[in-house]
Design goal:
heterodimer, B: alpha/beta, 26% strand, binds adenosine-5'-diphosphate, binds magnesium ion
């Protein structure tokens, strides 16, 4: 059995590690860290503790990257095999469930840990920059390490119980939301519950105890509040490390236990169409219409964005968020008796923020799938032999995806026009603000990058694009400086800086489009 | 002299003068310095069912990708109906239907949606589409499955859906890359029946395979490729009769028959008799300049052999193929 595990693990490691791209990726990562140090050095000319600056940036970046990357990287470990129906084959080759779990998931965990290891020496250098102590660095890396191990195993559990990668990722995201936000909003809820009289005595104590424990096990409070504190003197292995490791072991054991009953269920490869029904079915009005005269648009609208049914559902759900938020706001305020906030004015603002975030997230997901799905299904060939240009097909597909953003966009408009005081005039101000357009361009370039990367990597184009964007912001001081100046009052300086930013982004957008075009053609000939 | 005055045999002459549908001239293509195609030239005649045979890695897929405009030839030219694949890409794409060697279908679509999608992509209007879809589904015998999800179909059916998709723009020439590989015998036979029907409709079909005998009955012309070099290109009949080999027939006798090997070896013109072990069956190789099948058969009847069959041996075809493709090794 051990032999089988070793083989499988060696195989996945070789496949992923001996891969030139992975090395390149790590190299780029190291360079990036080096650049951040340089930046910290430069900023030390004006500020006190560049080491601490650099250090906190590193922690933030690592936390974000592990979280974003981990979701797709770890959660697909087992579902990938399920989707390709290769689990049975692996089992027949004499690999036991625990071997499979170790081979598939643990090798990925090692990959992530390696990324942490390559940067460690640099972070140690932060000590020489001043403001950071060795025990802080050690504690931070112990805490990140424990977080990776927990995330990998939670995602593994999700991967074992789900049939499809999408479900596994969604489960992992749900867990992360609970893990990150419960400690933050927990105390507020408790105080409300207590004053409402729903909770008293022993119950309160237990709940409070539980919440304290939860917040202690959160990597975020450790990374962003405890460790950067200059009076940091906690043990290197704190409660967060221990609790996360315990959770990891628990999840791994549970995955092992559930493996036979979940992962081995021989399931005919199911094809999911979401809310899109077949024309022959009962719910005909929710079926795809006949192909439009631009069929590429039609296809993305129905088969990626989900069609009428999903759009309607999204519209209703996004709308329902508004009264829910308002109710929650009013409820909270009743007990906090703070008079500085007005729920009726604040809630639409919050809703607007959530809708904007929804647009960004949905757009990123569409971008990472619009061509990636064609490549995975090996369907690019039949598109490329059509008497249509790659550009025509690509832009049609993009517009089809954009239709999926309509519900969120409509709610943004409703929020602005109907609910926000002086919404329309504010909108006018925003629309003439060049900074807004720079930000929009940044977003567009980001989406281009997501598409481009999705044509090269098997999974994880989205977090990779996120990392690259962060890196370019960090590595290209011009950009950061430009953003600082873009808010400047000197009209001329401002116009010049914004002009430069515009041109830079337009050029990179154009270059990305050319690269996407070339890559699509190349993929067609493979 | 105007053309109307040409007498009856004119159609034959015109047909002979017809330009080849696919004209591959001296194509060279390398991947990272390794030659996949080495000065490849061949023609595919109009309305023929043309086989393209070679072992794995011979360069079949590469050639097909070049013909269907997915890959640009590095040297040489390829014309389809006189249109160059590099300069007249769109014209070529309008006239061809290419079926790749893997399923290129959207699993989450129904058969109807999938065909409808491609019909629209070829620019067919809605009204026209309904009729076309009915036609291609009827032709590929998929009408009953039109509302099934493609992901739930068997391999043979998925292959027929792919074929229906390829037919949707009514292409004059079909390029099929190993359509029969991975299909069970039944699905294979059904596929071949559909191809015969398509040929009857006047389409030119260029079909690749790594098994020559699979195409022997079906095709009227064949091109054999090995390691990027063309080994043979011409009619199937010529390949069977003029490869420099002697014809081999298989004589099958009733189980009760005694061993006749030595008797057979005495006959004039016989080169080799190979008795198959375990049953009274013989591979008879003869010199067709000395004797004929009729003469042999007459002799067998005279001896009153209990003949069950006397027919061309399939293994001969495989040997011809091996012979052609192996020459490169030496
Ligand atoms: N995209 C590619 N990159 C590198 N080599 C390739 C590529 N496609 C094909 N080849 C090589 O070209 C040769 C011919 O391949 P192919 O045309 O696919 O053969 P066939 O279809 O006859 O099996 C093979 O040696 C193969 O390894
Ligand atoms: Mg091939």
């Amino acid at each position: 059995m051990l032999h089988g595990v070793a083989t499988l693990m060696a195989r996945s490691l070789r496949m992923e590690a001996n891969w030139l791209r992975a090395h390149l990726f790590r190299l780029v990562f190291v360079f990036f860290i080096y650049f951040m140090m340089l930046l910290a050095q430069v900023s030390s000319l004006t500020k006190g503790a560049p080491g601490l600056d650099f250090f906190t940036q590193m922690l933030w970046l690592n936390g974000m990257f592990i979280t974003l990357g981990g979701i797709s990287f770890f959660a697909t470990a087992i579902t990938e095999e399920k989707e390709e129906s290769t689990i049975g084959l692996l089992m027949m080759a004499g690999i036991s469930p625990v071997g499979l779990l170790l081979g598939k998931s643990t090798s990925r965990m090692i990959q992530a840990v390696l990324l942490l290891a390559v940067q460690f020496p640099f972070t140690l250098l932060a000590i020489t920059l001043g403001g950071v102590m060795l025990n802080q660095v050690l504690a931070a890396y112990a805490s990140l390490l424990a977080y990776i191990i927990m995330l990998a195993n939670v995602a593994l559990l999700a991967s074992v119980v789900s049939q499809r990668s999408g479900t596994a990722m969604a489960l992992t995201v749900l867990f992360l939301i609970a893990y990150s936000f419960l400690p933050a909003i927990g105390p507020a809820i408790t105080s409300v519950l207590v004053s409402e009289g729903m909770l008293s005595g022993q119950g309160t104590e237990w709940l409070a105890q539980g919440l304290t424990w939860l917040s202690e096990s959160s990597v975020w409070s450790v990374l962003f509040y405890r460790i950067p504190n200059s009076q940091f003197s906690d043990a290197i292995i704190g409660p967060q490390v221990i609790s996360n490791l315990v959770a990891a072991v628990f999840c791994f054991l549970l995955s092992w236990l559930l493996f036979t009953s979940f992962a081995l269920v021989e399931d005919a490869p199911t094809v999911s169409r979401g809310l899109l029904f077949r024309r022959s079915g009962k719910v005909r009005w929710l079926s795809a219409s006949r192909a439009w005269s631009n069929p590429f648009l039609w296809k993305e609208y129905y088969f990626l964005a989900g069609g009428d049914g999903l759009l309607f559902l999204k519209f209703v759900l996004y709308g329902a968020l508004l009264p829910i938020l308002l109710g929650f706001h009013v409820w909270l305020q009743k007990y906090n008796n703070s008079s500085y906030s007005d729920p009726y004015a604040d809630t639409p603002q919050l809703h607007l923020g959530i809708m904007i975030a929804a647009v960004i997230i949905e757009a990123s997901i569409y971008a990472s799938r619009v061509f990636h799905d064609e490549i995975r299904g090996q369907t690019m060939v039949s598109l490329l032999t059509l008497p249509r240009s790659i550009a025509e097909i690509s832009y049609s597909k993009v517009v089809g995806c954009a239709l999926g953003l309509v519900p969120a966009l409509v709610w943004i408009m409703i929020d602005i026009v109907a609910f926000l005081p002086k919404g329309i005039s504010t909108l006018g101000e925003i629309l003439v603000n060049p900074q807004f357009w720079v930000m929009s361009l940044v977003g567009l370039v980001f989406l281009h990058l997501v598409v481009l990367l999705s044509l090269f990597v098997k999974w994880g184009a989205l977090p990779l694009a996120f990392l690259c964007t962060m890196m370019s912001f960090q590595c290209c001081p011009l950009l950061a400086v430009g953003f600082m100046f873009a808010g400047e009052t000197d009209e001329l300086a401002r116009a010049i800086v914004i002009g430069i930013l515009w041109v830079m982004h337009a050029v990179s957008g154009f270059v990305f489009q050319m690269m996407i075009h070339a890559r699509l053609y190349e993929l067609g000939s493979k | 002299m105007s053309e109307t005055q040409i007498p009856e045999e004119a159609p034959v002459k015109v047909a002979a003068k017809l330009k080849p549908v696919i004209d591959v001239r001296d194509v060279v293509h390398s991947f990272k310095g390794r030659r996949a195609l080495d000065h490849v030239s061949f023609q595919v005649g109009a309305q023929s069912l043309h086989g393209f045979v070679g072992p794995n890695g011979a360069g079949k897929t590469t050639s097909l990708r070049i013909i269907c405009t997915l890959l640009r030839p590095q040297i040489g030219s390829v014309k389809v109906f006189g249109h160059d694949v590099v300069y007249d890409t769109r014209e070529v794409r309008r006239r061809i239907g290419f079926m790749p060697d893997h399923f290129s279908t959207y699993r989450q679509m129904t058969v109807f949606e999938y065909i409808d999608f491609f019909a629209a992509a070829y620019g067919l209007a809605l009204k026209q589409r309904t009729q076309t879809i009915d036609d291609v589904l009827a032709l590929t015998d998929m009408s009953a499955r039109r509302n099934d999800l493609i992901g739930g179909l068997s391999r043979g059916m998925q292959q027929r859906v792919s074929l229906a998709r390829v037919l949707v723009n009514d292409p004059q020439v079909l390029l099929l890359d190993e359509p029969a590989s991975g299909l069970d015998p039944r699905a294979r036979i059904e596929l071949m029946e559909i191809l015969k029907a398509l040929k009857g409709m006047g389409k030119t079909i260029f079909i690749s395979s790594h098994i020559l005998s699979e195409l022997a009955e079906l095709c009227d012309a064949v091109t054999i490729i090995d390691r990027g070099k063309i080994k043979y290109s011409g009619s199937m009949h010529d390949l069977l009769t003029k490869t420099g080999q002697h014809p081999t027939y298989r004589l099958t006798l009733d189980d009760t028959a005694a061993d006749v090997t030595s008797q057979l070896e005495q006959l004039p013109g016989i080169i080799q008799i190979e008795a198959l072990t375990g049953r009274p069956e013989y591979r008879v190789t003869f010199d067709d300049t000395v004797t004929t099948t009729n003469a042999l058969l007459r002799q067998f009847l005279e001896w009153d052999l209990p003949i069950l069959g006397f027919a061309a041996d399939r293994r001969h075809l495989n040997e011809a193929f091996m012979d052609l493709t192996e020459r490169g090794v030496k």
